[in-house]
Amino acid sequence: MTEAILLVGGKGTRLRPLTVNTPKPMVPAAGVPFLTHQLARARAAGVEHIVLATSYLAEVFEPHFGDGSALGLSLEYVTEEEPLGTGGAIRNVASRLHSGPDDPVLIFNGDILTGLDIQALVATHSSSGADVSLHLTRVEDPRAFGLVPTDATGRVTAFLEKPQTPEEIVTDQINAGAYVFRRSVIDRIPAGRPVSVERETFPELLASGAHLQGMVDSTYWLDLGTPQAFVRGSADLVLGRAPSPAVPGRCGDRLVLPSARVAPDAKLTGGTVVGADAVVGEGARITGSTLLAGAVVEPGAVVTDSLIGAGARIGARTVLTGAVIGDGAQVGPDNELRDGIRIWCNATLPAGTVRFSSDQ
């Protein structure tokens, strides 16, 4: 396995305001853009050439990663002029692949944090002779996902999108967002129009008699589509619960980047990240949270399971729980923000306001 496609074109709507100025794969997790973790894990598994399928804010990827040589990779970038969906994005970059018709091509989504054994997925694909192999994982409540039942040999028997009734929930196995395609199958995806692999490509392949193989790997897996999940994923990377060779430091309760300033009596726990040039004031307590570059938490503030955007400021004694503060926002002292509240980029919240779950 030397080649992969990474789908990084989504708008990250559910992650706003984090994605107003930054595409979802470039939002920092454990001190570096999330995409860095995916690229590093792919390289560790033997992947050498990756094509990034970009769309939203496409211009930010190449200036950061360049040709990929710093990561030991060869990177190329293809931008969709109009959103093409997962299948359309895969087909749109096919001309940049070097693989022969029967060679395997790894494909993965830019918003999944996983401990998937990539080499095992490729080995399963090769040994089964499949046209497409899918990483499957098990979840307690599969209603928000696409179910993928398999037979006793692991061969996929159906695709069931987001079932709701008990009768529809025939398995706890879901599509975990990583695939190995036979190259010739990619070339069969219609070109020049939106295509969903989940709703169109996979069901049509199954109906045509193609061999789709599932591999259940129930190691760490997290869809980073919501702010709460993103904060949790970053903390899990710092704590060592989620594997990545790209975490810039040793795993532990906290990750403080070298240019950050943290008061000696501030308490950072639960996988908290303090980004470049960020400041944490005296007596502040921060648990399981992420401060992006240049953020400021003033003395006595208490921040739990929250994400504070680049250049944002949290006032003295303010309490945040499960909050997302957009880039450049100013939250005055003595506020209490809880229950998933989101404060928009560059918004200003006066001192002493008490607000709960509602977008700003």
From TrEMBL:
InterPro entries in UniProt: GMPPB_C, Mannose-1P_guanyltransferase, NTP_transferase_dom, Nucleotide-diphossugar_trans
Domain Mannose-1-phosphate guanyltransferase C-terminal: 252-333
A Pfam family reported for this protein in Swiss-Prot or TrEMBL: GMPPB_C
Matching CDD domains: NTP_transferase
Domain spans labelled Nucleotidyl transferase: 4-236
Stretches assigned to coiled coil: none
Family to which this protein belongs: Belongs to the transferase hexapeptide repeat family.
Protein name: Sugar phosphate nucleotidyltransferase
Source organism (scientific name): Streptomyces flavochromogenes
